[in-house]
Amino acid sequence: MQNIPPCPSCKSLYAYEMEAKLLCPECGFEWTPETGFVEKGLQVKDSNGNLLADGDSVVVIKDLPVKGAPKSIKGGTKVKNIRLAEGDHNIDCKIDGFGSMALKSEFVRKG
After folding, report:
1. Nearest to 49 by CA among 76, 102, 22, 12
2. With left for phi above 0 and alpha for psi between -120 and 50, is residue 100 left, alpha or beta?
3. Would 64 disulfide with which of 9, 14, 48, 73, CB 3.0-4.6 Å?
4. Residue 64's beta-bridge partner residues?
């Protein structure tokens, strides 16, 4: 068995090797063993701290009022095929009955 160093981000001992990179299953960090270089990129976490990726499905965790709409997005609404974006509202998606929408990741959980 190889000697794999702990994750440089969260210090998890469960890192594993995949192709030429080391990956952490707990925080999603990727790095190369030669340089110790950590590939950040756009990392968006949900309300529970799980990393989100393009194409994931999420669940809204609380009622969210929508400007100009007669009703709010109810907690428990499932949103499929999200896209991650830079900025304050870091999730772009389409919600049935509302259309295109930008959400904050702090109000969703992976699901």
Report:
1. 12
2. beta
3. 73
4. 73
CB burial readout 3-38, b (16+ within 10 A) else e: eeeebbbeeeeebeeeeeebbbebbbbbbeeeeeee
Alpha helices in 1-111 (DSSP H): none
Is pLDDT at 7 greater than 70 in this prediction?
yes
| pLDDT confidence tier of residue 97, bands split at 50, 70 and 90 | confident
Burial track 59-91 (b if 16+ CB lie within 10 A, e otherwise)? ebbeebeeeeeeeebeeebebeebebbeeeebb
Examine the pLDDT at 36 and tell me if it is beyond 90: no
For 9-33, the pLDDT digits (tens) are: 778 888 888 888 888 888 888 888 7
Q: Which of 49, 34, 43, 25 is nearest to 91 (CA)?
A: 43
What is the SS3 assignment for 106? helix
